[in-house]
Structure formats: structure tokens, C-alpha cells
């Protein structure tokens, strides 16, 4: 057999192997590291449970830390079938997801992460305008999430409004960047993976992020001060977004398995996220980091910003083509208030109790035969 024939034979064999692998397993994508609370439970454990509950009919191979898709490409990647399920941070695609970014920028309305995880999930699954947006982008929305509260993690003390002047703050974009400008700081838009370098090199004064970053991004090595002013929390986009052909190809019974597992990990990831924050802050304090509260001038400035920024949210949404952002925000606020009340009467540290509530109020009300199919 000549070399050309050998290469041709090898190529055919590789294609066959790839086709077989694709038929047996699917790709699950997340750009956080595998040790992160939003990956190790909602993706790694999730994949194991789904494979077991579907009798091996739905098997996900989990790719983490951007090894399959970079953050800005996750929406396109799931639409095009590079991944069959992915996490997506909505900030990366404001033009494609104007409604998701509109509600995602309401992060200061209620900073309770558990409330926002459940509220964003129900809204994303049931609001007609939001559903139309997912469909237009070739994704079946599966469920939301929320980070823990965002805090200023700094290499310089921040106590007062005056302390904020001219400080360079890593922000998540949108409302967070506008808040920085509102208080006289300078917003810096960089990925979370670059926070350490920025603080270490002095190009950042603070990273504004959930405090688990002290461990997950090793910020405790470069952060000397943490201010506990809650600068919102992040939930824009989705924790699980599915490729449409994949979703429609699996059985209704297997879609119900996915519903049930998402209901469980919706609450589980919040419990684990907060545990990681507590552990990270304690460890950093033991290593010498100072934890402090904002003074009245800074708290008042945040309160003033929250009121003023809603008009900006509405104006920006209209510029991006959202027809009636006022009505959408009213609906979202009602959903938030509903979950604020519901979660007051459940053990917030019991993942099974939270899963039962998520099923009863959200997932059991969906029809696995038609959701994402019609």
C-alpha cells in the first residue's frame, strides 16, 4: 500500500472514530475552571447524573477553563453545535442578547444571589420576549445562576466615596462600569483571568468580583483590602444553554432528566458558591487581608446610582431594539419579589429542599414534550 493510500485509509478511520464518539457523547462547555462551584457541581456532577439517569443515552464530556470555547464564543459555539450545552456570560454578547443584558443589569435591585438565581431561571424559561430572544440566537435556555455578591478586592484601602476617585476598578461591564464612573473611578474591562496580573502589576487598584476569586483566581496573594459593599451580583446569560438540534433529538423522558438535574444544581451551586466565598475570605484574612465596610458616603452613592441607572437601562435597551423594556423590567421585578418571598420559607442550605421548590414552581410546570421543540 502506497503512502497516499495509507493516509486516505487513516483519514477514513479517524472520521469513523469521530462519528462514533459524537454519537455516544456530547460536549459540555464552561469557561471557569473545573474546581469552580459553577462547574464541579452543575457540569461535572451533572454530567455523571445525567448519564446514569438516561441509561447512558445522554453522556456529556465536560470541557472547562475555556478549553473548548473562549468566553466570547460560547453563544455562537452552542448555536453551531461545537458544544451541546454551555455556560454563557451575557455581557459578551450585548447586541445578540439585549433583553438578557437588560435584566442582567438589574443586579442592584436585589443582591441576594439565591433569589436572583431562581428569578433569572424562571424569567428565562417563561417570559415570552426572553424566550423569543433565545430562539433567535439558536439556543434552548435551560436555567440560570448567580454569583455571590460582588465586592471590591483591592491592593489599597477603600473606605469612602473620596477613596474611589480615580481608582482603576476591574468591572464586569454594563451597570458595574457605570457605577464606577458614577463614583469617579475608572472602569477597566478585562476577563476575570487577568485580574491577578492587573492587581499584581499595579494596572488595577481593585477587582470587583465575587470573593471566591481570592482562592479560585489566587487574588489573596495580591489583595490587601476587601470592602463588603455589595456591588450587585452577576447572573446575565445562562448556566445551561442547549444546542437546538441536540435538544430536539433527545427523548422527552431525557429532557425531563435534564430538567430535574438543573432544578437540583440551581440551588446546589449557590450553596457551594457561598461556602467557597466564606472559605476564601477566612483564608485571606488569616494571611493578613483586611475586611472593612463602606462608610455612609459610599453607601449613599450606591443607593443614588441604583435609582438613576434604571433610566439608562431602558434607554440602552431601546437603542438595541427592545420594544418595551419598561414592561419587561416590571415583569422581572415581580419575579424577583416572588422569589424573595418564596425563599424566605425554605432551608437555604438544603439542596434537596431548594430542588423541590425549583421543580414545583418552575420545572414541573414545563412540558418536556414541547419546550424547546415547538
From the spread of the alpha carbons, the general shape counts as globular
CA-atom Rg in angstroms: 22 Å
Percent of residues in helices: 40-55%
Which fold name is given in CATH as the topology of the largest domain?
A: D-Maltodextrin-Binding Protein, domain 2
- Helical stretch count? 15
Count of beta strands: 11
Q: Which architecture of the largest domain does the CATH hierarchy give at level 2? A: 3-Layer(aba) Sandwich
Structural class: alpha/beta
Instruction: List segments where confidence is low: pLDDT < 50 over at least 5 consecutive residues.
Output: 1-23
What's the number of domains?
2
Q: Hey, roughly how much beta strand do the residues contain? A: 5-15%
CA distance, first residue to last residue: 52 Å
**Strands side by side in the biggest sheet:** 7-6-8-5-9-11
Question: In CATH, what is the class of the largest domain?
Answer: Alpha Beta
Secondary-structure element order, N to C: HEHEHEHHHEEHEHEHEHEEHHEHHH
> CATH superfamily of the largest domain, called what?
Bacterial extracellular solute-binding protein, family 7
Pfam family, one: DctP
GO biological process, one term: transmembrane transport
GO cellular component, one term: periplasmic space
Signal peptide: 1-23
Could you please describe the fold and organization of this structure?
By secondary structure, this protein is α/β, with parallel strands linked by helices. It has 15 helices and eleven strands. The strands form two sheets. A six-stranded mixed beta sheet has the order 7-6-8-5-9-11, sandwiched between helices. Helix 5 (113-126) packs across helix 14. The longest helix has 35 residues, at 252-286. It is globular, with a radius of gyration of 22 Å.
Amino acid at each position: 500500500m502506497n503512502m497516499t493510500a495509507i493516509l486516505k485509509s487513516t483519514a477514513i478511520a479517524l472520521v469513523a472514530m469521530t462519528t462514533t464518539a459524537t454519537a455516544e457523547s456530547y460536549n459540555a462547555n464552561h469557561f471557569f475552571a473545573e474546581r469552580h462551584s459553577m462547574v464541579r457541581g452543575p457540569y461535572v456532577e451533572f454530567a455523571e447524573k445525567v448519564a446514569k439517569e438516561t441509561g447512558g443515552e445522554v453522556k456529556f464530556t465536560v470541557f472547562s477553563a475555556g478549553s473548548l470555547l473562549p468566553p466570547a464564543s460560547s453563544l455562537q459555539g452552542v448555536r453551531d453545535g461545537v458544544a451541546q450545552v454551555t455556560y454563557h456570560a451575557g455581557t459578551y454578547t450585548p447586541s445578540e442578547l439585549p433583553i438578557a443584558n437588560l435584566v442582567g443589569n438589574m443586579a442592584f435591585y436585589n443582591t441576594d444571589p439565591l433569589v436572583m438565581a431562581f428569578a433569572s431561571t424562571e424569567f428565562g424559561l417563561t417570559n415570552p420576549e426572553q424566550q423569543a430572544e433565545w430562539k433567535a440566537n439558536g439556543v434552548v435556555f435551560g436555567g440560570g445562576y448567580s454569583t455571590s455578591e460582588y465586592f471590591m478586592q483591592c491592593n489599597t484601602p477603600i473606605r469612602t466615596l473620596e477613596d474611589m476617585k480615580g481608582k482603576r476598578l476591574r468591572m464586569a461591564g454594563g451597570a458595574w462600569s457605570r457605577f464606577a464612573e458614577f463614583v469617579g473611578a475608572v472602569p477597566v474591562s478585562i476577563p476575570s483571568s487577568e485580574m491577578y496580573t492587573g492587581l499584581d502589576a499595579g494596572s488595577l487598584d481593585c477587582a470587583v468580583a465575587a470573593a471566591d476569586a481570592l482562592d479560585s483566581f489566587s487574588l489573596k496573594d495580591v489583595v490587601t483590602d476587601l470592602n463588603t459593599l455589595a456591588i450587585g451580583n452577576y447572573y446575565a446569560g445562562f448556566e445551561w444553554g442547549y444546542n437546538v438540534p441536540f435538544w430536539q433529538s433527545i427523548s422527552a423522558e431525557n429532557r425531563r432528566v435534564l430538567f430535574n438535574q438543573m432544578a437540583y444544581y440551581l440551588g446546589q451551586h449557590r450553596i457551594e458558591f457561598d461556602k467557597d466565598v466564606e472559605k476564601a475570605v477566612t483564608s485571606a484574612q488569616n494571611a493578613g487581608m483586611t475586611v472593612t465596610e463602606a462608610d455612609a458616603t459610599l453607601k449613599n452613592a450606591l443607593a443614588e446610582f441604583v435609582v438613576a441607572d434604571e433610566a439608562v437601562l431602558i434607554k440602552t435597551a431601546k437603542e438595541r431594539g427592545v420594544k418595551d423594556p419598561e414592561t419587561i423590567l416590571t415583569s422581572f421585578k415581580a419575579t424577583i419579589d416572588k422569589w424573595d418571598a418564596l425563599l424566605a420559607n425554605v432551608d437555604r442550605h438544603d439542596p434537596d429542599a431548594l430542588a423541590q421548590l425549583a421543580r414545583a414552581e418552575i420545572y414541573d410546570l414545563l412540558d418536556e414534550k414541547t419546550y424547546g421543540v415547538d
